Amino acid sequence: MEPKLVTEIIHSPTDRDLRRAAALLCAGGLVAFPTETVYGLGASALDATAAAKIYKAKGRPSDNPLILHLANPSQAALYAEVSFCFEKLASLFMPGPLTVILPKKPLIPDTVTGGLQTVAIRVPVHPMAHQLLTYVAGPVAAPSANRSGRPSCTNASHVIEDMNGRIDMILDGGDCDFGLESTILLPVDDHTVKLLRPGAITVEMLEQNGFSVVLDKAVTQKLGENEQPLAPGMKYRHYAPKAEVILLDGSRERVVTYMEQRADAGTALLLTDEMKSEVLGQKPDVTVLSLGKEGDRLTQAHRLFTLLRTLDEHPEIRRVYAALPATDNIGLALYNRLVKASGYTVLRL
Ligand code: TXA
Ligand code: MG
After folding, report:
1. CB of 18 closer than 6 angstroms to any ligand 1 atom
2. Domain residues of the chain, as ranges?
3. Is there a common fold for 8-219 and 244-348?
4. How far apart are CA 347 and CA 349, in angstroms?
5. pLDDT in tens, 155-186
6. 3-state DSSP call for residue 120?
């Protein structure tokens, strides 16, 4: 039997609670905290033993590196080799939902970087995360706070579901604003970046600020047996509910018609408000989950992981149909999470 920890759950933490959480992190403990993207599971990034506990609590493969969270981008130079490109990205988008990969300095333990010579740097804008990091006054290694293979946690009840009894403390700061994980970039030269994971900082935003953006293949396509993604985590089947997810690629009319023909009592449909009203009348026994209004992709991003978790509460659902989203702006982040949830199963209609 695994030893069970008593997890302290703090709803609406006070400043005093945040200082206590920071002290716990400095003493080698594990604390889950909210950020503007998803909840993180933090440990001191300078303490190899503490960081190793994260992998155990999550059931995470040890070759999948952790992101270093800092209170301020100026601290990055203490732990990584910063560059012109990083400084420019930091001045535009930090603090915010962006992670940048840089060559690491030796004081960051190999446990944190999964043995890589690079380290991921992120400066969250969420006030509670910022305050906690300020009190720690050092880097906090934090992956998303879900058990490995489950959708990331976008509220504290998801964290409690996955981590109660496995970590020391959960700080409940309510719902995360964005609901999908940060954009990950690898600088190539002064003005070129490789996009390893799409998020709220979009390709369009980067291009408007003079960057050229190269998409890593793993963002949109399944890699071959011998191919390795640049972000090791992208190779694992993430975000997957227990039911089979099938994405439908075609006009709205074709997608709705296909859903009407195929959906039965063991099926769930993941769609927009507009599509829901079209399909619902015909299919009263089918579980229909709406991501939000068709044009409101921020709400769709915000709801996706909660809906994927909801599906797991319905063991009778064996198959999920969802429309493949467009890939412009934050659509690319939704597209990426959905193709991963489906194991790249896309039906062209
Ligand atoms: O929004 C986020 O980024 C959240 C919050 C908590 O900050 N964190 C998060 O962490 O999503 P995680 O561990 O679930 O995802 C980190 C991703 C993984 O795919 C990992 O492989 C990649 O970042 N990564 C970390 N360090 C890397 C490195 N040195 N080189 C390439 N990829 C790296
Ligand atoms: Mg994760």
Report:
1. no
2. 8-219, 244-348
3. no
4. 6
5. 999 999 999 999 999 999 999 999 999 999 99
6. strand
What CATH fold (topology level) applies to the domain 244-348? Answer: Rossmann fold (3.40.50)
3-state secondary structure of 313: coil
Whether residue 95 is preceded by a cis peptide bond, meaning omega within 30 degrees of 0, is yes
| 272 three-class SS | strand
pTM above 0.90, yes or no: yes
Cα(64) to centroid of ligand 2, in Å? Answer: 10
Which atom of ligand 1 lies closest to the CA of 184? 23
215 secondary structure, DSSP code: E
Q: Is 154 in the pocket of ligand 1 (CB under 6 A)?
A: no
Q: Report pLDDT digits (tens) over 52-90.
A: 999 999 999 888 999 999 999 999 999 999 999 999 999
**Fold classification of 8-219 (topology level):** DHBP synthase (3.90.870)
Residue among 343, 293, 297, 295 nearest 320 (CA): 343
Q: Which two tokens stand for residue 96?
A: 């915010």
Do residues 290 and 271 touch, judged by C-beta distance below 8 A? yes
- Report CA-CA distances (Å) from 145 to 54, 108, 228, 299: 9, 21, 24, 21
